[in-house]
Amino acid sequence: WRAVNYKKAIDGSDAVIVSYNHIKKDIIKYFNKPENQVFTILLDMQELWFDKIKTPDNSSLNKFDLPQKYLLYPASTWEHKNHLRLLKAIKQLNNEEIHLVCTGHQTEFYINQIKPLLKDYSLEHKVKFLGIVEDIELYLLYQNCKAVVVPTLYEAGSFPLMESIIMGVPVICSNVTSLPETIGNERFVFNPYDISDIANKIELIWNDKEYIKENIKLLNVQSQKLVNNNALDKIHNVYNAISSLNE
Length: 247
Hints:
Layout: H1 2-12, E1 16-18, H2 21-31, E2 38-40, E3 71-74, H3 83-93, E4 100-103, H4 108-120, E5 127-129, H5 135-144, E6 147-150, H6 159-167, E7 171-174, H7 179-183, E8 189-190, H8 195-207, H9 209-227, H10 231-246
Parallel strand pairs: 1-2, 3-4, 3-6, 4-5, 6-7, 7-8
């Protein structure tokens, strides 16, 4: 359904605007859209859901019985979100201090694949899947976590990664699609198919004070790029250009 309707919209458009260059390449390759009709413009990440939250109360998290320190991965449990390899990395580390909290819609993949793996690996005491949480709860989970980890196998653009950057929460992520460009430094990315690589980056973001300090410093730079991208003017320029062609 998506493929058919995306093609209708793309074929009928004078210009296509996408967030990242990897999407532009896909539009050109799979939909045969001329390159000069596809534009990359990342929208300014402003007026986001967490901007509305004022003076939150940490007691909102009491019902979850969380560990004192934890990693956070907010994502629905679809297969491409790569929870299985993340859990295998946690198992490989074999560090009783490292806990993981996951939020998001729990799919059949969670029931059939993720939940049994938690039991097989005896990780129930180290990993919590909270399901869908309230905005205030998700905000507090971000603010109280040790770091965010985003091991996804594919994203057009990763909101958990962008949210972490804007909030200034330490974060590591996959080296796929738009994620390396978003975080801006290969030191903080990993191969999402390589369990040892995931484990290594987790250990660094958990224990290495200098690594964490450098990560936060980088986030301050990348945050400005996400928040102030001058998107409106860029979109106006595209619209004016195609309007002049049709006159």
